[in-house]
Amino acid sequence: MITELSEYLSSEFGIQFKNFDLLAEAFTQASYVNEHPKEHLKFYERIEFLGDAVLQLYVSEYIYQRYPELPQGKLTRLRAAMVQEKSFAAFARECHFDQYIRLGKGEEMAGARNRDSLLCDIFESFIGALYLDQGRDAVKKFIARVIFPKLDLGWFDHAVDSKTSLQEFLQRDGDVDIEYHLLSEGGTENAPEFTVNVSMDGQVIGEGTGSSKKHAEMAAAQAALKKLRQDKQ
Amino acid sequence: MITELSEYLSSEFGIQFKNFDLLAEAFTQASYVNEHPKEHLKFYERIEFLGDAVLQLYVSEYIYQRYPELPQGKLTRLRAAMVQEKSFAAFARECHFDQYIRLGKGEEMAGARNRDSLLCDIFESFIGALYLDQGRDAVKKFIARVIFPKLDLGWFDHAVDSKTSLQEFLQRDGDVDIEYHLLSEGGTENAPEFTVNVSMDGQVIGEGTGSSKKHAEMAAAQAALKKLRQDKQ
Asked: How much is the pLDDT for A20?
């Protein structure tokens, strides 16, 4: 199974693992080790400990560089969204890592192979093994393919407000002028309604409505982001 | 002040900072920025965000390599002891970083310069700046001087049990045979007392007493560690 995994990593990601024992360790759960006492196997937890810290640093470094105006609080929220269990489990599934985990029979029957917490652990332990075997540049290349594009796809928008996301999206390729204009102010005293549009260098790119000017601006930014991302695909 | 700091870093640590703005940012608190609005200064928080992750990784990597037999739970406890606020504040004081922080007058009066939370932040932001300006090898060299020797001095012993600490201490330079022998079992039924000694390659290096065999072994390991560390100094 480790041979298959190694071939898959090579063909899919161009990664040629040198140390197969390390790779095996990264994909082996304790339950499997316990069922094969004579093989003196190791399970993934120590490598996962390292991989967790590797991911923390390179995700932090990337968003620190990419969002030079984002204050610490928002950087922290964004990182938390990116490195959480749900995100890592999704990356592990996308990379088909679930197919290669070595599990004990009981855990297999209990459905561990599709459990977010295990998939998250395996994603971290894979990164730890990659770091030890191939070095940091290999890790950076791998997460530049698997994690960072999700920023542009809006996976982590909830962690940063839409106006900030739109600004970062538009200003990646140079300075642009982003403006919000109040189009109408209506509704009733108890249910006010504001409509706002957002323009880039004078061209309207989105419109939104909300119960306050700020909410309307957020909605306009969200609409613009959605449209821009569709156009990009 | 940044000139003085840069000269100090050069003479004391052999670190020649290239980007003085970055170094200034790492040592500037928001209160100082607010008092000097015309200078358009930046404060340390974004760099601290990065430095925190840098420290997490290189501390994790070091203890992962140094303690190849330590299970994940103990690695996590040890790392938590090493990267906590109290530890980082102590390192910052030892490096005299407190003298170089740029604070607003109110914060200065309130004694912020000697506050653990600020000193911890500054230690992290210094590491972040060092990483950005000089790269990871400079960071590893710096923490190999400032942080890792504290492991041998026993700063973090509380995070790992004494028997483990003693084993790691003795086995750093190669395999040795560590044995615990029960010397006596006495006391009363309600207050039993065990005495144990510990030997390395047949030579007794410590003795301890406790209310159980395990406690006595811990005490013996602790005594041996204390003695060995004294001899080493």
From this structure: 96
